[in-house]
Specification:
- By secondary structure, the chain is α+β, with helices and mostly antiparallel strands.
- The chain folds into 3 domains: 187 residues, Beta-Lactamase (2-Layer Sandwich); 174 residues, Orthogonal Bundle (Hypothetical protein af1432), CATH 1.10.3210.10; 111 residues.
- It contains 19 helices and 9 strands.
- The strands form 2 sheets. Strands 1, 2, 3, 4, 5, 6 and 7 form a 7-stranded antiparallel beta sheet that branches. Strands 8-9 form a two-stranded antiparallel sheet.
- β1 and β2 form a beta hairpin.
- It binds fe (ii) ion (2 copies).
- One fe (ii) ion binds next to α7.
Length: 512
């Protein structure tokens, strides 16, 4: 007897340690049922948690050895459900009173009891519930947070027997330890959900500053997680032995969500630059060209006045003057039309560049008699971009988002299992051949997680809707571009292969 009790206390102690080490709520609930069943030799067990808002007991976990062994076990056998917290069900009675109920045979409950056994489950599944031990799970303040239900204790011959009365108080104390662990896990889950929502809302708001990047990070996180899970399912090739744990997946998910948070430091006008010159800049340029024409007219009028006052018979010269003026005015109009045309173009050919240089060299005399250029240096710089519509400086500004991201994520006090988030995000624009940025590091210095985000990021950017400087590319062509980038040694070949072969590209909308 003494030996038996000692063994039980030791087992209890071990279970307590195991419970306090599990912080994932659903794994913890499974563990509680598993360990207490083991402890009491119970064939089955269930766990209910109290939902204070709805005053219900939510059925969270069910384990049943007999049913599990059946070949025709239906998935709906253990589907979740809720029951109201009332005294007429066994679990409800325990949840209200906090009393432990040790029932030798639930088909034989005394007529005077408040509660009765619902046989629906048994009938549906051809099971016979007999002995049952129900204990309330009380937290440190004595609040009942759930009910643990152990079913059909078995003896050494496999016969169902009543639960040992001596074990009742041990199970109750175990249930209370479990309650504390559950409360901690719930709290952790809530904090995690809060942190995750905060990150997702902030990042989505930053993405939405530009219509062209709205939803980008969410999509990248979706592709990233799908690719990581596809790697876990791959048992060949260089990543055959890579298997991301749930914690590592969580870490990668945060990195994917946060990879572009630094875009907060890039001006909106640069992020969603629609044309080479903004509307305001184009407005002032149009104004100036009107002034150029006005000053040409005034100059011609002055010359005409001088001619008509100077000598007789200058009509041919005056006619010549008019023709010149006409030519000049139409040339200014053509130049302005040319500028308007190239303003919205996404590429500028050599001939266009030369013409722009000619215009840039031109001067006119303004109404105050000052010599001024047709185009300012800044206008010329913006208009003369060969590809896209961003100047070198603006490209640099966009690229600086990685540095801003680095500064931001380095200030987030990540918990231990998320410690490497900053490392992964910083590498998302690095390329295997060293042609990426900001550090231009090569293959061996780019973590696998950063490479995964890079593939997801490029695919999302390629397939995203039309942008001013880039038309949307359909998925087939985008995948071909990824393959090309892999062939050229910029992207990880194996990741691109998995991305395509496992159809990861179809998972864009999904996130974990
Ligand atoms: Fe980025
Ligand atoms: Fe990105």
């Amino acid at each position: 007897m003494y030996q038996d009790m000692r063994e039980r206390l030791e087992a209890l102690n071990k279970i307590g340690v195991a419970l306090s080490g599990e912080t994932n709520l659903s794994r913890l609930l499974e563990l509680i049922v598993k360990e207490t069943r083991h402890f009491t030799n119970a064939d089955a067990g269930s766990l209910y948690l109290v939902d204070e808002d709805s005053n219900c007991l939510n059925f969270e976990v069910a384990q049943n050895d007999t049913l599990r062994k059946r070949a025709d076990l239906k998935p709906e056998t253990f589907k979740p459900y809720s029951i109201p917290v009332t005294r007429n069900s066994i679990a409800g009675y325990v949840a209200i009173t906090g009393e432990a109920l040790n029932i030798p045979d639930v088909y034989n409950i005394s007529a005077g009891a408040d509660f009765e056994f619902n046989r629906d489950f048994d009938i549906r599944n051809r099971y016979r519930t007999k002995s049952m031990l129900n204990v309330a799970m009380k937290d440190t303040e004595g609040t009942i947070i759930g009910v643990l239900q152990l079913i059909n204790s078995t003896d050494s011959n496999g016969e169902v027997v009543p639960f040992d009365l001596n074990i009742e108080s041990l199970v109750s104390s175990l249930a209370s330890q479990a309650a504390v662990a559950i409360k901690n896990a719930q709290l952790l889950k809530e904090i995690k959900a809060l942190f995750e929502a905060l990150i997702q809302y902030s990042v989505s708001a930053i993405d939405a500053r530009s219509p062209f990047t709205a939803g980008h990070s969410k999509m990248v996180a979706g592709y990233t997680m799908a690719l990581a899970k596809a790697i876990n399912d791959t048992h060949e090739g260089p990543y055959a032995n890579v298997s991301f744990t749930p914690d590592q997946l969580e870490e990668l998910n945060y990195a994917a969500w946060l990879h572009d948070i630094g875009k907060i430091g890039v001006r909106e006008g640069v992020l969603d630059k629609m044309s080479r010159l903004s509307d305001a800049e184009m407005g002032s340029l149009i104004n100036r060209f009107e002034n150029i024409k006005a000053s040409a007219i005034i100059e011609a009028e002055k010359k005409e006045l001088a001619l008509s006052q100077g000598k007789e018979g200058s009509s041919t010269e005056i006619e010549e003057l008019h023709r010149e003026l006409e030519n000049r005015l139409s040339q200014v109009d053509e130049e302005l039309a040319f500028i308007k045309r190239i303003n919205a173009d996404i590429s500028l050919p050599e001939s266009g560049h030369r013409r722009l240089e000619e215009i840039h060299r031109k001067r006119y005399v303004d109404l105050e008699g000052q010599k001024r250029p047709y185009l300012t240096d800044l206008e010329f710089e913006n208009l003369s971009v060969r590809k896209g519509n961003l100047t070198e400086g603006e490209i640099e500004e966009i690229r600086s988002h990685v540095n801003h991201t680095e500064n931001i994520v380095n200030k987030i006090p990540f918990t231990r299992h998320l410690k490497r988030v900053p490392v992964f995000v910083i590498g998302h624009h690095e390329m295997l051949d060293g042609s990426g940025y900001p550090r231009h590091v090569k293959e061996e210095d780019i973590p696998l997680q950063s490479r995964i985000i890079a593939v997801a990021d490029i695919f999302e950017a390629l397939t995203a809707g039309d942008r001013p400087y880039k038309k949307s590319i359909d998925p087939i062509n985008s995948l071909a571009i990824l393959q090309e980038e892999a062939k050229n040694g910029r992207l990880d070949k194996e990741l691109v292969r998995i991305f395509i072969e496992k159809r990861v590209y179809e998972a864009g909308e999904k996130t974990i």
